[in-house]
Amino acid sequence: SQQGEEDPQALSIQEGENATMNCSYKTSINNLQWYRQNSGRGLVHLILIRSNEREKHSGRLRVTLDTSKKSSSLLITASRAADTASYFCATRNYGQNFVFGPGTRLSVLP
Amino acid sequence: DAMVIQNPRYQVTQFGKPVTLSCSQTLNHNVMYWYQQKSSQAPKLLFHYYDKDFNNEADTPDNFQSRRPNTSFCFLDIRSPGLGDAAMYLCATSRDNGEPQHFGDGTRLSIL
After folding, report:
1. At A95, is the pLDDT very low, low, confident or very high (cuts 50, 70, 90)?
2. Does B43 touch chain A (CB under 8 A)?
3. What's the CA gap between A2 and A26, in Å, rounded?
């Protein structure tokens, strides 16, 4: 299985702190995506990073990809209570569909 | 705003009674997906359509079927729901395979 595995499973931080979540996968990928899911809602796409990219930024989000280690990280800087959600990585192998990892539950305390 | 809409948000059905969940999109995307998500778990892909081409995941039970009568609509049919089918069902679309997916807010299915 090429399923991504997020680490940690749960993370609790104070508002203003940075949050880092990691994702590991098993096989070569075409791209890796991060999604956010608020409780009881659908997933929202955050960022896509392709296999030939090492880092991408979007606002307070920074994603890195290390294909040699088959891992990615999502950094949320200056976190806010509104960032409280579950975060999933999804990996896609060539010609296949996405497989979502089990997710990291982030709680940002005011 | 272009979006993915799922109806209803909450669906209750009886054990063994067929149920249909619906999804519509205004994004004009080629690909539509159905996922099953159980509490505190990752979404699990059931099947997807690329235009009219249906792609079933190998481990999707035969109890689950889907229809896509046109670009905008896609339906999930559960022929004989069991207690284990209680879950959130998420519909998503993407412009092409591998592109970012746009999700609806899901239908939470309860089985009595």
Report:
1. low
2. yes
3. 5
Q: From B39, B109, B82, B89, select the one nearest A102 (Cα to Cα).
A: B39
Indicate yes or no: CB of B45 within 8 angstroms of CB of A41: no
Chain A environment of B25 (Cβ under 8 Å):
none
- The reported pLDDT for the residue numbered A2 is 45
Ramachandran class of A59: left when φ > 0, alpha when ψ lies in -120 to 50, beta otherwise: left
Smallest CA–CA distance from A33 into chain B, residue: B100
Q: B86: helix, coil or strand?
A: coil
How many residues are recorded in chain B?
A: 112
Residue A87's closest CA among A29, A49, A46, A26? A46
Q: What is the pLDDT confidence band of residue A26, given thresholds at 50, 70 and 90?
A: confident
Set of chain B residues whose Cβ sits within 8 Å of the Cβ of A45 = 100-102
| Residue A34: closest C-alpha in chain B | B100
Q: Looking at beta carbons, which residues of chain B come within 8 Å of A33?
A: 100-101
Band of residue A5 on the pLDDT scale cut at 50, 70, 90:
confident
pLDDT over threshold 90, residue A92: no
Question: A103, B103: Cβ pair inside 8 Å?
Answer: no
